[in-house]
Each structure stands twice: as structure tokens, then as C-alpha cells.
Amino acid sequence: MIGLIAITAAGRASAAQLAAAWPGQTRTYEAPAKQALHRAWAECDQLVCFLAVGATARLIAPLLDSKWIDPAVVCVDEPARYAVALVGGHAASGNELCTRVAAVFGARAIITTATDATGLPGLDTLGWPTEGALAAVSRAMLDGEPVALETDATWPIPSFPVTVGGAGQYRIVVTDRIVPVDENTVVLRPPSLVVGVGASRGVDAEEVLALIGEALAVGGLAQGSVTSLATVEAKADEAGIKEAARMRGWPLVAYPAERLAAVPVPNPSDAARAASARRAWPRRRPWSAATCWWCPNASRGWPRWPWPGSARAGGWP
Prior knowledge:
The chain is of the alpha/beta class and 317 residues long. It is built from ten helices and 14 strands. 31% of the residues lie in helices and 22% in strands. The longest helix is centred in the last third of the chain and has 15 residues, at 205-219.
């Protein structure tokens, strides 16, 4: 939801114009300004303030927490000649919102984010989790310093400047593996992993998540690259598995048992083969509440198994 904070008559008229242009996407908040902005901050993902930049900055200052969770804020001046991206340019898509607002009013979009202003790809705009020295490496790119680019597979990454790609003091590493990170390295986590999960009835989400962490650690894989959980159809309604997926924000995808049984893996489970024959997941041994395995993303041809094994709890055969 996009909150529209309008205090003056001109601001209210501009807010009404924006609301008409984006039906069902906006919610209008009126005077007094401080209370309106505080309510909108708590209720909306993005804000358009028909206020001066200075006034808006003072009002939101005590509310700011982190670029990763704060809403985007765009300011529009009284005659709607300018739209200014104030905060959340990348992480909250404030720059995109600013451009959209400007298009409605025929205004000029003012975007001061350095990478956008210079035409460089922002490392935090790919929608991938990042780890490490994001600011330092971005600054090196802006300054034209050599930046090494290291990838362990072919990933859809943007075109970088010519200074990126060879050797350099700074590094961009694109991988789903756990790698050392220093003050000159930023790691981009591509959406490459699916975690397979099975469980006994009544397993709780904490145990499922603990085993997922164990499985990823054994494989040397980063949780930031996990895109979803996968399970056999017979387990798709298991409360603990569903809650684990919800807690991490991962979709839960269910596959027929016969499809899972047909997947070549280094350590095949008799249970999966039996599930295929019975079209149901078998009862688990009482001391083994959950089992996990990992595989590349389904979009890359699920599943393939490039790793030597999988982490399991208890005595799963």
C-alpha cells in the first residue's frame, strides 16, 4: 500500500490525482502532518509526502530504523513540479516510485542515489540477499577502481563497468556457497537452492528449521540462496513444515512421490521408493522427526544432486 500524506489544499488535490491514477493502490492521510505520517509509516510500504523535503526529513527522523525495513519516501512539492526520492531508493524501490509519481504529474524525478545517477547497476537492486562490504565495493565501482568479479556458475547479472571483472583489491562474489568475507568483499546470493523436507507427524517448526540449518551447513551452502521448501504431496499439510516455510518466507512446493522416487541421488531413501509404491509418505522411526536434503532451484531443472550427501536426523535409512 502507498500512503499519501497531504496537508495543504494543493497537496490534497495532488493526492487525489495520484489516487485516481492508481486505483486500489493508495491510502490518503490528512492533517495533522506528524500524526498522519506516523500512521502511514506503520501501515504502508511506500509513502508519498506532499510536503517540503526538510519538513518530511524532520518528521521521519525518529522513525528511521534500517534501509531494509523502512518504507520508501518520496516528496512532492506544492505545485507538483518535482518528485524527490528521499529514503529507500533501492531497498524499498523508492527510486522507482519517484519515477512513477513524476510521470503522473509530468514532473521531474530527482534521484540522488549514486549508482542511479551515474548509470551503474546497484548491487542491492538485484533482489538478491547481500553479505559483506556492500558500501565499500559500490564506492569502489563509483570511483572507477578495479573490482574482481568471481562466480561459480552463470548467473543473470547486470552489465558492470569495464573496471569490474579482472583482478582488484575489491571483490564481487556471486555464489550460493559459504565463503570467507572480508572488508573488501561483497557476496551476492543467487536464488539457486530448494530444500527438500520430510517429517513425522507432529514435528514442530523449530526442529525442521534446525535440521535445514544443519543440512545447509553440511553442504557449505548459504541460507540466503534458498528460494523454497519442497516436500512429498502427502506431507504438504504437515503443520510443522508449513510453519517453518512461513517463518522464513519460503514458498512450500509439493511433488508427487513417484517423481521424487525417480530422482537419482547419492544416498537414496527406501522411504521415497516405498512412498512412490504406496503413493503416501511412510511412517518415520520415532527417534527421527525430520529429514532434509538440498537441490538446485526447480527453475534450473529440479532436481539435480551435485553434492555428496544429505543431512538427516536420527536413523533415516
